[in-house]
Amino acid sequence: MLSNDLASETDRGVEARLASGGGVVVELPGDADWRAVGEQIGSAVQVDIRFASFKDGRGFTLATQLRTRLHYQGRLRATGDLIPDQARYLKRVGFDAITPDRSDLAADWAKAGQQFSVVYQPANDAVATITDLRHRDGDELTRLNARYRQSDALEILRDAIETTWRGRIALLSSFGTEAAVSLHLISRIDPATPVFFLDTGRHFAQTEQYLRTMTERLKLTGLRVLKPDTAEAREEDADGYLWQRDADACCALRKVRPLARALEGFDALVTGRKRFHGGARTELPVVERVADGLRVNPLANWSAEQIQAYFQTHDLPRHPLADMGYSSIGCWTCTAPAYGGGGLRAGRWPGQDKTECGIHAPAQGAAVRPERE
Ligand code: SF4
């Protein structure tokens, strides 16, 4: 059995607690339903998630849900059929350690393990916990938000793209009803800025047409279309109806994991989210740390009226569905016109409690929220 060196120090901390009767280890299969395990993992000092196959991504989804939905802070270990290429992504979704079944890839795992340098629980070692790191960069976020408080959206983006995260920043666009504003702003700075679009395979034809219209009109050359992993999709959504059975798992497969993979090599991602969208966005800062990195939200404090004024000033094309009652547009399977009030995003996942797809899930633990600008 293998275990990377950094994790082995933490192993000793967990084992010491187990020896003193301080907790239990819970084993879960990768396809366990996170909603059913909250009580089971409540007192666990360690949760082992077993991957039946390295091609089966459900263990990643389960780890993400334990960290983001159940706020599990104990040690999370991946076991089973894993390959070294997965090390970085295992870390991203919140695993502290890996114990793969195969023992013939020790050198590759050791190399990958050198990047596996953060843990969730403190132990008798010098490895910084996620909470330690978050406190450290909280100061940096506060400084950036204070600086950007005096700037307009174009100035924020210009600094982010040309200076602060030069070459390490991308824009995420849904090519939805308000997307033209962010796209137009970056086209004024650098039309080659990477633009990520999550191709879930469930978009309205009108959205795909709008994507072509906007990229041609603004001469954007950095478009990157992100698709779900084919093997994972075959494994997890063989009948194509995962969105009906488990929308969180579907978003993890088609949005969260493709974006996490694309973010390798990037330090920050620009979004078009605004506070007036309501819900979890009401307190949105301009710069924030989320589970998989930094988000820059230059339009955070824009109003609906400012958005409309920007469209008119720059004569920007509208999404073809905007005049049909669709105020926020995602996959056709999970989007309805927002008639009858309830806010701009009322038509997303109609009839469900779900309000966000999970790509901007907050960092776990004692998140440091920068001062509101
Ligand atoms: S919005 Fe719906 S169809 Fe699209 S990825 Fe999420 S659950 Fe799946």
Provide a quick synopsis of the model:
The protein has 373 residues and is of the alpha/beta class. The chain contains 13 helices and ten strands. The longest helix has 19 residues, at 130-148.
Structure explained in plain terms:
It is globular and about 65 Å long. The chain has 13 helices and ten strands. It is of the alpha/beta class and 373 residues long. The strands form two sheets. It has a six-stranded mixed beta sheet. A four-stranded parallel beta sheet has the order 1-2-3-4, with helices on both faces. The longest helix is centred in the middle third of the chain and has 19 residues, at 130-148. The relative contact order is 0.13. The chain has helices at residues 5-19, 38-41, 58-68, 87-92, 106-113, 130-148, 153-164, 179-189, 205-218, 230-236, 242-245, 247-262, 304-313, and strands at residues 24-29, 44-51, 75-80, 97-100, 169-172, 195-198, 223-226, 268-270, 287-290, 293-296. It folds into two domains: 3-128, Rossmann fold; 137-334, Rossmann fold. The model is unreliable at 1-9 and 365-373 (pLDDT under 50). Bound molecules: iron/sulfur cluster. Iron/sulfur cluster is lined by residues 200, 202, 243, 247, 250-251, 254-255, 330-331, 333-334, 357.
